[in-house]
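Render this sequence as a predicted structure.
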Amino acid sequence: MILYPNASTQLYGIIGHPVRHSLSPIMHNNAFKKRKINAIYLAFDVTNLEAAIAGIKALGIRGLSVTIPHKEAVMKYLDDIDDMAKRIGAVNTIINREGKLLGSNTDWLGAVRALEEVIALKGKKVLIIGAGGSARAICIGIRDKGANVHIANRTISKAKSLAYLCGASFSGIDELNNISNDFDILINTTPVGMSPNEDKIIIDPKVLSNFKVVMDIVYSPVETLLLKEAKKRGCKTVSGLKMLLYQAIAQFELWINQLAPIEEMERALLEAINS
C-alpha cells in the first residue's frame, strides 16, 4: 500500500469554482486506498478554464471531475465527447487517454441508479422541478429508461426548452399543486431546501402523498424538509447523497477500469457529512 505520494503517483482531481465544499476527494481517495492504487485526488479551484485544461495534458493528470460553473464551458476544450454528454450538453468527467481528453457525464447515471434502487422507471410518470443542468441530465437519463417526464420551472421558457430537448411536457411552477396527482415520482433539482435554508420546501407538503417516490438532489442537509415531509406521508425517499455517490462510482470505474469499492466510498461520504 502506498503511504505517501511519489513519482509514480497518478493524479486525479476536481475543477470548479468554488470547490472547498466538495466531498469528491473524500470518496475517491478512500476508494484508491481501498483498492491499493497509487493515486491521489485533489480539489482545484479554477477560474481560468482554458489554462487548467492545458495543464491536464502538461502535468499528465489522469482524470478530472468537473463541477459548477465549468460543466458546459469545458466541452470546447476537449478532444472528444461521448454521445450521452453531447445530448446532455454538459461534461462532469474528463478521462485523459494518452494525452487525448475525453468528456463524459455520470450525473444521469447517479440519478438513475439512485432511483432504480426503490422503483422501476419504465412507464412511470415523473415530475421534475427545475430546468437547470442537473434537471437536463436527469430528464434525459430517465427518459432513456422509459419514464414519462413533465418539467415544472419558474421560468416557463426554460421549462419549454428542456421539455423540447428530452421529449417531455412542461408547465410553470405555480401549477404544481394542481397537477401533482398525475405523477408517480417527484424530483427536486432546485437548491430550495439547501443549507442554510433548511426550512424551505419547493411544493405544498399536502400534495406529497400523491407520489410513490420523492427525490431531492440537495444533499446538505441529507434529509431535506421535502424528504422529511414526504416520508411522513408514506413516500419512499431518495437523498441527493445517493446521486452524488453513484455518479462518483461511475467516474472511478471510467478512470480506473475496475469496480469501485462502493461500501468504502459510501462510508467515507457519510462520515464526512456527519462530522
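Summary. The mean pLDDT is 94. Residues 10-105+243-274 form a domain with the Rossmann fold fold (CATH 3.40.50.10860).
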